[in-house]
What does this fold into?
Amino acid sequence: MELVVKNVACARGSLRVIEGVSFTLRAGEALVLRGPNGIGKTTLLRTIAGLQPALEGQIELPEDAVAYAGHADGLKGPLSVAQNLTFWASIYGTRGIECALEAFDMTALLDRQAQDLSAGQKRRLGLARMEVTGRPIWILDEPTVSLDAANTALFAAMVARHLDAGGIALMATHIELGLEAKVLDLTPFKARDDAPEPFLDGGFL
Amino acid sequence: MRALLFRDLALAVKAGGGFGLSLAFFLIVVVLVPFGVGPDTGVLREVATGVLWVGALLACLLSLDRIFQLDYEDGSLDLLVTSPLPLEGLVAVKALAHWLTTGLPLTLVAPILGVLLNLDPSGFGWIVASLALGTPALSMIGTFGAALTVGLKRGGLLLSLLVLPLYVPTLIFGAETVRRAVDGFDNTTPLLMLSGITLGTLAILPFAAAAAIRINLR
Amino acid sequence: MPMSIWEYANPKKFMQTSSAVLPWVAGLTVICLVVGLVWGFFFTPDDFRQGSTVKIIYVHVPSAMMAINVWVMMLVTSLIWIIRRHHVSVLAAKAAAPIGATMTVIALFTGAIWGQPMWGTWWEWDPRLTSFLILFLFYLGYIALWSAIENSDTAADLTSILCLVGSVFAVLSRYAAQFWNQGLHQGATLSLDKEENISDVFYYPLLFCLAGFVLLFVTLLLIRTRTEIRSRRLKALRLRERMA
It folds into this structure.
């Protein structure tokens, strides 16, 4: 199993933000995207996850392999922790939420409503969702926001287990996770040309 | 799919889900009409069908912006789009959930409210039948409108402006089905047209709505 | 290079061509409208039943025709955008919508003014009048959706989908309205079947008016599309400046 990104350019709104991004991830590998705010980390991750089309280039990955976690956790406040996880498990056709709960030490919170969780607990629940998807390629956008040191370590352990099992992880984060991961700084890939706007074709006014 | 349906139903019924608001709205509209047109039972009998249909339609409209907006705001729409569910199926399930929490209850209380409006006895069966056939189309069209406006901050008013003209054929054939029956005419044609519109919207609009969601998320 | 209609989809090419064509189209519009309206209003006999009221036909029929045709044109250009993603095409649809809405309002108003002496009422829920009213609502929705969305390409995509779906429902509404009320409106003024047409005295000036309204639409459309292209260019330039 491989995730191949070839010469990809993508746009945020009508702005071309990054171009010429290429990398290959094989089973068991992880890649951390770095770069200043606004460089296009989220845009690139959303493009690879299939939420938006790439302007140029190819993204090759096996079908139905990606699980995506964005800035928002996608939790339903009125539902309990267990209900939230069970929902995603049945959407992905997997069973058993226990190991996901244990991974983030959330077994005690099982029946708590998601709206009563703290920000860090919500994040943990959002990340535990990745475990129940059963998908090999994880795409994580700033996964450690609002996690404390202990939980960041739990998260790193979860990713490490995922990689050991032959998974792939692609994430944007500034925190050192202590994982054996490649690092890709996106700064050199900032789009040089303007957006391929037909309206910038000069001299017709 | 089933999990999504049950989740949406559970969320609608729980606190803050807005279930019952549409019904209350429907009741209030029907109660207000006699205050507006006068208590003459003959006049009320004449307008009963129209008022029930228009009231049900407006009540349906009320909850449309919730279909995708909450999922969009908390990020679950992104996650659902990247999940194994086909987006067209997701749209259809959303419309079904909307119908089960809005259209179906409206259909069931319509005959009770018909009593308040002095609806002709022969119309009771037909009002239920026509609403049962027509409200799925209202939910589906509304879901399409909600998909168009999902990325907008204050899409509610715009949503009504987009959806109401699309409701016209359903309303005409739905109300006509009942009116013809009450007046003692053959109502096969409007009944068939109403069913045709419902089936047509169910067949086509999930694709249009899914396309709109994809565009809105990118 | 082979000549192709798609060349005009390039904004630059469109701006050049349209600026060359615009004065001619505008001039022709004025000629047709002046000839048609003056001929129609002052040099045709009164109708034996409808009197001089019938002369409103020279505004009513062309505007009603344009109200529908503009929507059809928007449907075609929206389809071109969806299939071939030519920016000028969808901007032309955007530019056409307010013109079409105005034509619809003109048709409704002149219809009301005509209807008052003929039918004794300003408004009647006649299927034709009703369909035009519904068409006006469709125009409003389309315009409102354009103005509500920030990103131009997103707006173009969504309004095109709305235009497609709306067209189906507009046709449905037309038949629904016909079914719902059989109506007072006289039959079509013009049809290819010559037997049904109005007599030649009224017919020829009407042809001029029809041509005049089509040309008027083209003129306004060119002007408005040019404005839309310029504002898109302005937006793109501002964006580039902010990026730099």
Remarks:
- The mean pLDDT of chain B is 90.
- Residues 40-217 of chain B form one domain.
